[in-house]
Amino acid sequence: MQDYSSVQYERLMPREARARREACPVAYLPIGTIEWHGVQNPLGLDTLKMHHLLCECALAAGGLVFPPLYYGENREQALMEANAGDRGQIAAVMGLPPENFDPGYMVENVAAQNRAYHNLLIHILHEIKSLGFQVAVIGAGHYPLLDHARAAAAAFHQEQGWPKMAAWAMSGYELVQGRFTPCGDHAGKWETSLLLHLDPGMQDLSRLPARGETLIGTSDNGVQESNAEFGRAATDAIVAVVQDRVAELLMNIDRYQGHGSPM
For the domain bounded by 5-186+235-256, which CATH number is listed? Predict the structure, then answer.
């Protein structure tokens, strides 16, 4: 696995972080969740995938990666354990009662949980800005969090003072749609291959059933043929798009200062 320590903000000495920030004032924030990703993948796949992916972006484009956020999203929407048709089977494999993911289990309603998450993201963006960055890239490894990241970025843009830090959110697959098959999935060939490349040794493909047999909570798109080469090609393509976007944001930072900026 690639050594990412030189681009991880929390691992650097102050002089090292300052030098890298002054060379390229871009911060990357990986966000994700803890969720079932098939019998072959770790539960933190979304966040692990995005953390490594953004470290690759920082190595290519410059800037620093902040610690990943695994927590905080509501646990009742867009979650395999809560909403998948085979949620009962997922709970059984995990040794959990399905009612742990029923509506109301988290005490606060979904709207309140979402607003708390938005506030957390906005808080982090203010913190990143206070540390001297001009651009923040939020990478949503769990695709439904992209909407939350965009909402937080818009609210942050409105309430921050001048000069404004530009904040852009993405999840990766939408940047290269049409170039790969599959392109974006849940624990299928796309996600499994990405992590095979980005963090080798985290998975056990031998646990997958044979083609045609029942998959639990996993995209049935040739996941049995997941491979690191496919993951490498997808990673390189995403990194190239992010690199271009980061360069454009830095070169045209004045465009992102006013109301209705094209984020």
Answer: 3.40.50.10310
